Task: inverse folding
């Protein structure tokens, strides 16, 4: 069984991470720092907090779901707030995601 745990960095390296995950084909993928903003189709949004301004992959969770179509995807938000599309605020969640190949039974979740 291949288990992979990675930090998603808010999707910052998604263009490298997605092909890596696809070719590595883990049975279980655990990701932290995953962005989920289902109310937008934008690829990128901006996180702003005083002097900290960071690009965020708006739907990183969706992107990984597409990269692993034979996996059950579970997103567990750790924080909720807004990201920015210019001056427009977009509701967004940030947290953990787990992707388990459909051939493996999930018998519980804590």
Result:
């Amino acid at each position: 069984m291949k288990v992979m745990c990675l930090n998603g960095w808010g999707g910052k390296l998604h263009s490298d991470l997605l092909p890596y995950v696809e070719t590595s084909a883990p049975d279980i993928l655990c990701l932290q720092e995953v962005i989920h903003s289902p109310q937008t189709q934008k690829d990128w949004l901006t996180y702003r907090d005083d002097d900290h301004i960071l690009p965020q992959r708006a739907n990183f969770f969706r992107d990984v779901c597409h990269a692993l179509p034979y996996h059950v995807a579970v997103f567990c938000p750790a924080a909720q707030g807004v990201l920015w599309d210019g001056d427009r605020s977009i509701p967004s969640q940030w947290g953990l995601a787990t992707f388990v190949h459909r051939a493996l039974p999930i018998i519980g979740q804590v």
In short: The chain has a mean pLDDT of 96. The beta strands are 3-7, 28-36, 44-49, 52-57, 71-85, 88-101.
